[in-house]
Amino acid sequence: MNIQKMLGWVAILSLVIVFGAFAKASPKADVSQLDAKDQKLVQQLDNEKADKRIQAAQKLAERNCLKAEDALLTMLQEDSAYQARIVAAMSLMKLNSEKSA
């Protein structure tokens, strides 16, 4: 593994640690306030397959679904797959950068 890839992974893992340390425990998102597509995506964050949870988190960030922040925080804190936690952190970063832009 070259040094750039290793530094990239270190940066991503650092984000997971930082978001995990500062994220408050949050209740499940109230999906009733979301449109149908976003509701389905938030529900997919609980799918038994990690790849489905990862895809849902990425799509929520792409759709700039700010109301999914609580669900993504829960995913970041509780998901059993480290890959899903990394994607949750990246999705939260994207949502927060969109919010401040």
Description:
With 101 residues, the chain is mainly alpha-helical. The protein has 5 helices and no strands. α1 crosses α5 and α3 packs parallel to α5.
Overall radius of gyration: 13 Å
Mean pLDDT: 82
Low-pLDDT regions: none
Shape: globular
Helix content: over 70%
Biggest sheet character = none
- E-strand count: 0
What is the H-and-E element order? Answer: HHHHH
Number of helices: 5
Cα distance, first to last residue?
35 Å
Q: Beta-sheet strand percentage?
A: under 5%
The class by helix and strand makeup works out as: mainly alpha
List the helices and strands and how they pair.
Layout: H1 3-22, H2 36-44, H3 50-62, H4 69-78, H5 82-100
Helix pairs in contact: 1-5, 2-3, 3-5, 4-5
Question: What's the gist of this structure?
Answer:
The chain contains five helices and no strands. By secondary structure, the protein is mainly alpha-helical.
